[in-house]
Design a protein that fits this description.
Length: about 120
């Protein structure tokens, strides 16, 4: 599959709420995932498919999603970007938030080997 094919399918899966299916289908076993900031429950960098899968499972378990948008993909030679916007409630705190982030994915040998999330704190 081309980078564009992977990008378009990943976006389609995310729009359908199938983020874990996208991870299983397209992420390399040695994926590196970088958040632009760390938190008490989440280090800024995670390595390996199990760690990234766990991060996704944690996010889904701790947030009620009321709505959202997945925009893109914006495709380059071996990378693509996707914009995510979510209206969520953090389950432990009960705080409702509007989240906006841009994800940059790097593809090698037909698998996503690196992802980096950039946040819009003003959203």
């Amino acid at each position: 599959m081309s980078v564009a094919d992977i990008a378009h399918d990943l976006v389609a899966l995310c729009r359908a709420g199938k983020n874990l299916e996208a991870v299983d289908k397209y992420y390399a076993d040695d994926i590196v995932s970088v958040e632009s900031s760390s938190g008490p429950n989440m280090p800024a960098e995670m390595r390996g498919i199990q760690a990234v899968r766990g991060k996704n499972e944690w996010w889904l378990a701790n947030h009620e999603v009321h709505g959202g948008e997945v925009n893109g993909p914006y495709v380059g030679e071996n990378q693509f970007a996707v914009e995510f916007k979510f209206d969520v409630t953090n389950k432990p705190s009960g705080k409702r938030m509007q989240l906006s982030e841009m994800a940059l994915y790097t593809v090698k040998n037909g698998k996503i080997v690196h992802e980096h999330f950039y946040y819009n704190p003003g959203a």
